[in-house]
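Module 6 notes. Inverse folding takes a fixed backbone as the condition and produces residue identities as the prediction. Think of it as a translation problem where the source language is geometry and the target language is the twenty amino acids. Below is one complete input and output pair. Work through it position by position during the lab.
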């Protein structure tokens, strides 16, 4: 990047900036992922040609670029989360949750592995990037991270 007239960001060393006249091209590199944008679309097109491809996957987000819109999905990430927590073979069930329900601590319930429970919550919080509809439910479960108990057979609050 530096050999192609980019400057490295002063605070974030994975950010690269290229100035062409009054326009800028920003390139963010994360491990083996790259995302970029510019104030001039021709700079983006030129950079995309150099990189020989378009953004399709970034930090767990699947990205499909179309002519007039961009579609973002986390279906692959979701499948990986289910597999990581041994729930990839579980059957789906519609379990709507009321918006005014109240959970209380269950001191007599069966304890679960707190590290695994927190991992589940963290994974689900990341999933809310493309699924804001589950935010309320994930946050309700997150309130019990200090002392999670079994809620349904084989699961913890899910």
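Target side of the pair, the amino acids:
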């Amino acid at each position: 990047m530096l050999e192609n007239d980019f400057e490295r960001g002063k605070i974030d060393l994975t950010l690269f900036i290229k100035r062409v006249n009054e326009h800028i091209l920003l390139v963010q590199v994360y491990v083996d992922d790259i995302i970029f944008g510019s104030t001039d679309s021709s700079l983006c097109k030129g950079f995309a040609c150099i990189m020989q491809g378009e953004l399709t996957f970034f930090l767990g987000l699947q990205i499909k670029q179309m002519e007039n819109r961009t579609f973002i999905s986390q279906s692959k990430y979701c499948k990986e989360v289910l597999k990581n927590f041994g729930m990839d073979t579980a059957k789906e069930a519609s379990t709507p949750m009321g918006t005014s329900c109240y959970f209380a601590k269950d001191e007599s319930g069966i304890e679960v592995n707190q590290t695994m429970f927190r991992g589940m919550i963290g994974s689900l919080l990341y999933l809310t990037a493309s699924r804001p509809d589950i935010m309320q439910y994930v946050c309700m479960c997150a309130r019990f991270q200090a002392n999670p108990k079994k809620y349904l057979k084989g699961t913890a609050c899910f």
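Reference fact for the lab report: The chain has two domains: 2-55, 75-142.
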